[in-house]
Amino acid sequence: MNKLKRILAINDISGVGKCSLTVNISVISSSGVECAALPTALLSTHTGEFEGYTFLNLGSEIVSIAEHWKSLGVRFDGIVSGYISSVEQVSMVKKVFELCRNEKTLIFVDPIMADNGVFYSGFDEKMCDALREHSKGADAICPNITEAAFLAGVEYEKPPHTNKFVEKVLSRLKNLSVPIIAISGIHPDDEKIGNIVYDSKTDTVFNAFRPLRPGIFYGVGDIFTSSFSALITRGADTESALKLASELVDSSILHTYASGKERRFGTDFEPALCEYANKVEAYFT
Ligand code: PXL
Question: Which residues, judged by CB distance below 6 Å to any ligand atom, belong to the binding site of ligand 1?
């Protein structure tokens, strides 16, 4: 039997709205990987399309928690860095990497800061610069196309995302020397949307597109990053991890779309998890 892998997810906990840690824990666990959690902030909901959400910065706890884990000898096979509340917290998360990694730990950075061409509430250029630095030294980064353009210093272009735009973004991101670059939410024409992954080991770009369903689906970036990072940590090749993660996103979107629910309450990945888990186990068998 293969040893159970363990990932640390560093992200906020938004109580309602199905994003960040609530997604990380569910999807990473369903991928057959243990998920430990380090919350960077506590919110009542995510920040998109909700008014009056509460926000508590948990920065003062971050390094102490990691020091306790170090004293216990806890190490992680993978660390996923997600929503970081401020520039100051970026250096705390860096410290967590130092305390909780060994020479084999894979580091995944999801530079959560923006979508659809605009920064999320509370983020700006300074945070973008800090996340660019934070991304250097990661084994993989998982930005959406807006975050990818911002990190690359390329002006964001609205859909349709042309090949020229995507290639420019990717070629600038390669300068960060991160071995795997996974970009989600690329929308090349009216009919499709999807993800691409650049793997520097083989100098190959893989893609996975799905039929477009109109509107915003909150948390799909978190679903994708959680699945992709768990599968890579378990030893999947990049092409298979992209395929399985993209199928989970696609299926979650289909369930949400069919339900007609209010989108801000999040994407319904739960009905898709059982089939996903079975596919993952079949892949690793
Ligand atoms: O899904 C990304 C995300 C994470 N955390 C918070 C958010 C968002 C996106 O809106 O608001 C708090």
Answer: 12, 14, 19-20, 43, 46-48, 83, 112, 120, 219, 221-222
